[in-house]
Amino acid sequence: MIERRSNRFIVVAAAALSILGPAAVGGQAQDKAQLDARVRAFLERTRGEWRDLNVPYEDGRVLHDLIVRKGFKRGLEIGTSTGHSAIWMAWAMSKTGGKLVTIEIDERRHRQALQNLEAAGVAPLVDARLADAHQLVKDLAGPFDFVFSDADKNWYTQYFKDLDGKLSVGGCFTAHNVLNGFGGITAFLEYVRSRPDYETTIDRSSRSGISVSCKLR
Questions:
Q1: How far is residue 3's CA from residue 167's CA, in Å, rounded to a whole number?
Q2: Which domains does the chain have, with CATH numbers?
Q3: Which of 34, 85, 117, 133 has its CA 20 to 30 A from that of 153?
């Protein structure tokens, strides 16, 4: 008798889930569609307005597509500026179920980034820190499966070394402006290319260039 009641409960519960499940899934899909529309409209509306060393639109798209394609969920950005790249990456992580930590040392740019993240609708997906990345990167526990470095170029190699042990196998360390010849870039590229446990390529969608170093083991 107890077994019959138990089975009956399972059948009733399954029936209830079958009714509520599609509605819940449909609601989530609607929320995602609304967020997609909001972010896309924001990025198109502001496309020609980004200054303060933000990435170009093309590179934002590269970062977004890489995160979505690889399914990355634990992201770190070094150098928020006013938030253009963070919006692209957080948007991507809304599709993978992930979140982004981003670091900016300049208080004015940090405040503007917070406003832009809110306006784009991705603020809940971003932990925006006002801090010196030289120290904070060392203190962050990780692990991360995606890193985007767009801060002081002379420190790229050190950022990589500080995060190497916190980057998951299969994760990627990406860096901006690698085609511009800024100080420190040559040494950084030589270092990451010398690492047998990483595979490094360069995306040339813009004149700035993004290096993508993915951890093999």
A1: 50
A2: 57-215 (3.40.50.150)
A3: 117
